[in-house]
Design goal:
One of its GO terms (molecular function) is phosphatidylinositol-3,5-bisphosphate 5-phosphatase activity. The chain is of the alpha+beta class. Helices cover about 30% and strands about 5% of the residues. It has a domain of about 25 residues.
Amino acid sequence: RFSSFVQMRGSIPSFWSQDISKMVPKPAISIDRSDPFAQIPAKHFNNLMKRYGSPIMILNLVKKREKKKHESLLTEVISNAVK
């Protein structure tokens, strides 16, 4: 018997950006476009399914709790998309 896995690391599949023109340690994260039907993440994960098959396991390493919302904005985006 053989088994294998593919590990990928990447950004949250959605419309977001950071202004890196300013010299600050943590550039603010902006959610650039609303995607209420999660079409962008769906397209991304469908592409992964076609390419690698199933199951797909998602491990969110983005911060969930912060005093001032920063990365947690992206956690909300991806959590709502994969429910």
